[in-house]
């Protein structure tokens, strides 16, 4: 089985970023959704961007962003990819990809087989699909520690590369990889001591577990 790539999402401090780099995670996720406890301001971004440069690939996480927000964040954060975690249509996803010239990740929220089927509509629009757990209406779109039935992923037949998110922790990530064959695993709340507070020991344990398969 191929050892998956690792993304530590919701990083907002130099200490958490250093832990992700030290433990050889491939991606660091910076959250640009203001209601999230992991929100990174444009003011704080340059320090993180400088620290990440040449050491880890930075992914900006957005929820239905306008072009102005994307432009400002891409520049300040030296982003290597844009992750869309809202209700962005395939058309909007393709537009962002064309306009900014960066790989675009589209998050698909999953609770049933029909959510996996939606992936087909993003073929050619998104460069990468991230299957995450669907959260209750009126709550944050992600980062809540919820998981979904991983067996649903067996129905995915698309050609777009994909990854797994949603409730992944140091304790369950190895089983998730064995069950799904996920080429990438993404965690946020699973490596925190409290909402938005990354735990460097849990980051290390997550990376170790993901590579132990």
Automatic annotation (TrEMBL):
GO biological-process terms attached to the record: L-tryptophan biosynthetic process
Record EC number: 5.3.1.24
This protein's pathway: Amino-acid biosynthesis; L-tryptophan biosynthesis; L-tryptophan from chorismate: step 3/5
UniProtKB keywords: Amino-acid biosynthesis, Aromatic amino acid biosynthesis, Isomerase, Tryptophan biosynthesis
The N-(5'phosphoribosyl) anthranilate isomerase (PRAI) domain, residue ranges: 6-208
Leading EC class: isomerase
GO molecular function: phosphoribosylanthranilate isomerase activity
UniProt entry tagged with the keyword Amino-acid biosynthesis: yes
Reaction it catalyzes: N-(5-phospho-beta-D-ribosyl)anthranilate = 1-(2-carboxyphenylamino)-1-deoxy-D-ribulose 5-phosphate
Record field: transmembrane: none
UniProt-listed Pfam families: PRAI (PF00697)
Recorded family membership: Belongs to the TrpF family.
Family annotation (HAMAP family): PRAI (MF_00135)
NCBIfam families named in the record: PRK01222.1-1 (NF002295)
Protein name: N-(5'-phosphoribosyl)anthranilate isomerase
Natural source organism: Altericroceibacterium endophyticum
Species lineage: Bacteria, Pseudomonadati, Pseudomonadota, Alphaproteobacteria, Sphingomonadales
């Amino acid at each position: 089985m191929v050892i998956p790539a690792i993304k530590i999402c919701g990083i907002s401090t130099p200490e958490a970023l250093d832990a992700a780099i030290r433990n050889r995670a491939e991606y660091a996720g910076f959250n640009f959704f203001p209601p999230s406890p992991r929100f990174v301001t444009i003011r704080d971004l340059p320090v993180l961007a400088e620290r990440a440069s040449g050491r880890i690939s930075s992914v900006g996480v957005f929820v239905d962003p306008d072009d102005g927000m994307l432009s400002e964040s891409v520049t300040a954060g030296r982003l290597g990819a844009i992750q869309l975690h809202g209700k962005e249509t395939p058309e909007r996803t393709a537009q962002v990809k064309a306009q900014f010239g960066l790989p675009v990740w589209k998050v698909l929220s999953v609770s049933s087989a029909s959510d996996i089927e939606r992936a087909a509509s993003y073929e050619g629009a998104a460069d990468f699909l991230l299957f995450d757990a669907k959260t209750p209406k009126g709550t944050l779109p992600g980062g809540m520690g919820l998981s979904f039935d991983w067996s649903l992923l067996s129905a995915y037949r698309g050609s777009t590369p994909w990854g797994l998110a949603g409730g992944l922790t140091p304790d369950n990530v190895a089983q998730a990889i064995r069950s799904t064959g996920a080429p990438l695993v993404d965690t946020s709340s699973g490596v925190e001591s409290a909402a938005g507070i990354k735990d460097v020991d849990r980051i290390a344990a997550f990376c170790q577990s993901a590579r132990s398969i």
